[in-house]
């Protein structure tokens, strides 16, 4: 029944009201692992395996940008016994996406907090796909919304200092547009739709600045169980809403 239901959902989507940028909080890998009696690393590997299908679903409906939150700055405080395998799984997943040359990858986050090997692999994937004319995929690793805003303001101040501006001149130039121009996602459209899996109904710091006018969809499925039908339901819900953009 699901293939027929999925096909009906896809046919009935309002193509004039689809999101251009989707942010996804890939949540629930550890709970999924516990539910199937496996170790945490198995859950993270199952979650990583679901990334490629998601990107394919996004391509099908014409999404232009996807931001995937794979690891928060808080996650960097996890025990080494969990963090080290997780970083390897993330790096392997990004390498695999890059090897296909279907998507243009852009790592975002406090990359300086990551181990050198992880950071270099993420940057290598970005360089290897820089000329790909496809879906732009922001890979958020070591990402925190508050950290991003702080980094943006710091970058703005240092830019003013390098230009020889006074403190007063720098302060006068601090506005919404100036901060936006220094975010990790500068130059990109803000997310239209943010999806969080696992039933949690909070942002947890994801795209705090960029999501001010976003629509949110919270899905009960744990990330490794997230299916195309769940994705289509999220997009349908988005298309049916009247977007007010803060008005």
UniProtKB/TrEMBL annotation:
One family name in Pfam for this protein: Prenyltransf
Cofactor binding, note field: Binds 2 magnesium ions per subunit.
Domain of life, per lineage: Bacteria
Cofactor(s) it depends on: Mg(2+)
UniProt binding sites for substrate: 28-32, 44, 72-74, 78, 196
Functional summary from the UniProt entry: Catalyzes the condensation of isopentenyl diphosphate (IPP) with allylic pyrophosphates generating different type of terpenoids.
Active-site residues annotated for this sequence: 27, 75 (proton acceptor)
Similarity remark: Belongs to the UPP synthase family. Z-FPP synthase subfamily.
E.C. number: 2.5.1.-
Protein name: Isoprenyl transferase
A GO molecular-function descriptor: transferase activity
Binding annotation for Mg(2+): 27, 215
Summary of subunit composition and partner proteins: Homodimer.
Broadest EC class assigned to this enzyme: transferase
Keyword set, alphabetical order: Magnesium, Metal-binding, Transferase
Presence of the UniProt keyword DNA repair in the record: no
